[in-house]
Amino acid sequence: MRDTDWTRLLNWPGYLVYRHEISEAEKTLKLWVRRKRSHRKLVCSKCGRRLSEGAIHEVLEREICDLPWSEYRATVVVELYRLRCPECGVKVEKVEQLPSKAPFSKRFEEAVGQACESASVRQVARRFGLPASTVRAIDLRYLERWQATRPKPVLREIGVDEIHLGKKTKFVTVVSDLVTGEPIWMGRERKQETLDAFFQQELSAFRCERIGAACVDMWEPYTNSIREHCPNCRIVYDKFHVMQHANEAVDEVRRAEFFRKKGALREVVKGKRWLLLSRWMHLDGTKKGLLNELFRLNRRLLKAYLLKESLSRLWNYTYEGAMLNYLNKWIDQLKWQRLPAFDRLALMLANHLEGILNYCRTKVRFGVVEAINANLKSLLRRGRGYKNLRYLLLKARRMVATNTEFIALQKAA
Ligand SMILES: [Zn+2]
Fold first, then answer.
1. Which residue, among 41, 39, 63, 62, has the nearest Cα to 52 in the 3D structure?
2. In angstroms, what is the span from residue 50 Cα to ligand 1's centroid?
3. How far apart are CA 58 and CA 286, in angstroms?
4. Tell me, what DSSP letter sits at residue 95?
5. How many angstroms is it from 12 CA to the middle of ligand 1?
6. From ligand 1's centre to the CA of 56, what distance in Å?
7. Could you tell me whether strands 171-177 and 182-188 are parallel, antiparallel, or unpaired per DSSP bridges?
């Protein structure tokens, strides 16, 4: 085969093969390439400025790994220039197929990145014969390049939530765009300073002003930060977070009853935690029967469960007055119940009334934050070792953009 054939098969625009070496024993193919004479465009890799041939400082060679050819591992030795850029000093030229300093061609990185979308890092590492850490680094660069090409839509509604990443990293704050359904930022911890950093480092004052609503939990550090940075933002308390607090109250009643009761009754309460935290409409006949049996024996648990169920109907109201009326009635009926966990919940709701009623003024999409949370958790379950938050964030964004799991999740909900 002639070098022109090798050039055609390699298909690197602007480059030709001038030497090749095949080792049948080691199953390797090595190609030496340099620019075609017609290809004169020289670009500084740092600033992207176009430079003339006079700027060539020196010639060097770089060896990189390309896509395999049949059974052969392919290495390409590229001849490239170091250029004297008036802006940046001596820098290496920009070459389409060399996206980073790492020894891989762009299309090789693309293949690895694409493989990482449907398989775990460990599986991809085995397939390409690379260490897992290298695969992660390639995948991260692949995602960064993808993200860089995407438009940045105006942020109108945001969600802010915390997610627990395990014992070491602990809590991470996640900011999401409720309109696109994508997570857009992550920061360690869940303090006011954490969210401050997002507004200060990621957004201009102008972009902060355009945020019209934020969907959050009743968590002071976040709401303080939002009030400080986004003058036109309405804070809306997320239904799912409020219901989480209601579930905690039910759980507290369950635990209290569990310890109070002895013998047979204790056995009935035991192991019903999950059932008590489920919505009635999501349970089948057998499970409803189990709960009914429990409620026959324990009125207090029945009350707690009914209170939780009725609270979830609060968001069916679209008029502020009607919503307020319903909430007041709900709080009123607690008076005779002697359920301290619910008294505390009622106080909490009363103290955050404005943000609950705000839902009538701005109908934010409630499910988004939960879906993003679930996506992140499924990534963490499969991936492990997301020490790099940026990697986790891009992975989750890609997941939403490619839509796969996100739609599956919406269908399941
Ligand atoms: Zn430059």
1. 41
2. 8
3. 78
4. B
5. 24
6. 13
7. antiparallel
| Tens-digit pLDDT profile for residues 247-303 | 999 888 888 877 777 666 677 667 777 777 888 888 888 888 887 877 777 788 888
Decide if 174 contacts 195 (C-beta within 8 A): no
Cα of 84 to ligand 1 centre, how many Å? Answer: 8
pLDDT digits (tens, 9 = 90+) for 193-231: 999 999 999 888 889 899 999 999 888 999 999 999 999
The Å distance, Cα 79 to ligand 1 centre, comes to 19
Which amino acid, residue 301?
L
The model carries a pTM of: 0.81
Which candidate, 277, 176, 225, 236, places its Cα nearest to that of 364?
236
How many angstroms is it from 87 CA to the middle of ligand 1?
Answer: 5
Alpha-carbon radius of gyration of the chain: 29
The dihedral over CA atoms of 250, 254, 260, 261, expressed in degrees to the nearest 10, equals: 140
Closest by CA to 81, choosing from 103, 102, 57, is: 57
- 118: helix, coil or strand? helix
Question: Rounded to an integer, what distance in angstroms lies between the CA atom of residue 128 and that of residue 68?
Answer: 9
pLDDT tens digits, residue range 19-68?
999 999 999 999 999 999 888 889 999 898 999 888 899 999 999 999 99
| Cα 93 to ligand 1 centroid, rounded to whole Å | 9
C-alpha of residue 73 to centroid of ligand 1, in Å? 34
Q: 114 alpha carbon to ligand 1 midpoint, in Å?
A: 31
Task: Answer yes or no: are the C-beta atoms of 182 and 397 closer than 8 Å.
Answer: yes
Closest CA to 134 of 147, 116, 117: 116
Find the 86 Cα to ligand 1 centroid distance in Å. 7
Pick from 40, 32, 37: nearest CA to 10: 32
Instruction: Spell out the residues 6+ positions from residue 329 whose beta carbon is closer than 8 angstroms to its own.
Output: none
Mean pLDDT of the chain: 87
Angle at 405 between CA 401 and CA 410, to 5 degrees: 100
